[in-house]
Amino acid sequence: AQRVTQPEKLLSVFKGAPVELKCNYSYSGSPELFWYVQYSRQRLQLLLRHISRESIKGFTADLNKGETSFHLKKPFAQEEDSAMYYCALRSIQGAQKLVFGQGTRLTINP
Amino acid sequence: ETGVTQSPTHLIKTRGQQVTLRCSSQSGHNTVSWYQQALGQGPQFIFQYYREEENGRGNFPPRFSGLQFPNYSSELNVNALELDDSALYLCASSPGGSSGADTQYFGPGTRLTVL
Questions:
Q1: Are B92 and B100 in contact (CB under 8 A)?
Q2: CA B27 – CA B22 distance, rounded (Å)
Q3: What is the structure's pLDDT at B27?
Q4: What is the mean pLDDT of residues A53-78?
Q5: pLDDT tens across B47-97, in order?
Q6: Could you tell me which residues are beta bridge partners of residue A87?
Q7: What's the rounded Cα separation, in Å, for the pair B105 and B14?
Q8: B103 to chain A: nearest residue by CA?
Q9: Chain A interface includes B42 (CB < 8 A)
Q10: Which residues, in sequence order, are bridge partners of residue B95?
Q11: What are phi and psi of A18, to 5 degrees?
Q12: Mean pLDDT value across residues A56-67
């Protein structure tokens, strides 16, 4: 079964502190992993995907197949990072649906 | 470039009624996916359409049905509404291919409340 788990519903850190949003997945095969973000009053948008190995807005995420994890990290949090973050996987075979985790609400305190 | 649009923004229905939600895909996109997002949950895949054909379906009953039109816009229809159908319904479009293997761009959603 395909499943994405984000163990923290809420995460609060101070500005300038490091941030790590956890994501674990369950999938028998090679999925494609994503992080989506939703800022206040905005639509859901792609933040980054593992195959591009980019750093977007200072965020990075490394796919660890041994631990089946895809944690999102940023060394120095900024207030504008406050948002809802969703980890998602997509099968590279069959129906190309996105399977989302429950999401983590990140709050950056000044 | 025009983004994904959805209508209406909000909708209130009563149990047993039927509802139609609409989505206009982003320019140049021929694949549309629909998701249901209940309060406090992540989006759940309902189904996907590619060039007017259903291209994959999630774990939703047959009273959830859809259409895609030649201009790639799409409708989500829900019959015999239940209280648990209250949710935000998201439409996402992607550039194409039956594999749907491109980035999905989301619309703002339609908030459906069933009383």
A1: no
A2: 16
A3: 86
A4: 90
A5: 999 889 998 899 999 999 999 999 999 999 999 999 999 999 999 998 875
A6: A35
A7: 30
A8: A46
A9: yes
A10: none
A11: -75, 150
A12: 90
* Residue B9 structure tokens: 């923004």
What is the identity of the amino acid at A14? F
Among partner residues A44, A95, A99, which is closest to B55 by beta-carbon distance?
Answer: A95
Find the distance separating the first CA and the last CA of chain B, reported in whole Å: 38
Q: Are A98 and B35 inside 8 Å of each other by CB?
A: yes
Q: Is residue B96 less than 8 Å (CB to CB) from chain A?
A: no
> What is the tens place of the pLDDT at every residue in B16-39?
999 999 999 998 888 999 999 999
Q: How many CB atoms lie within 10 A of CB A67?
A: 10
Query: Does B55 reach chain A within 8 Å, measured CB to CB?
Result: yes
Inform me whether the pLDDT recorded for A62 exceeds 90: no
Q: Specify the length of chain B in residues.
A: 115
d(CA B52, CA B70): 7
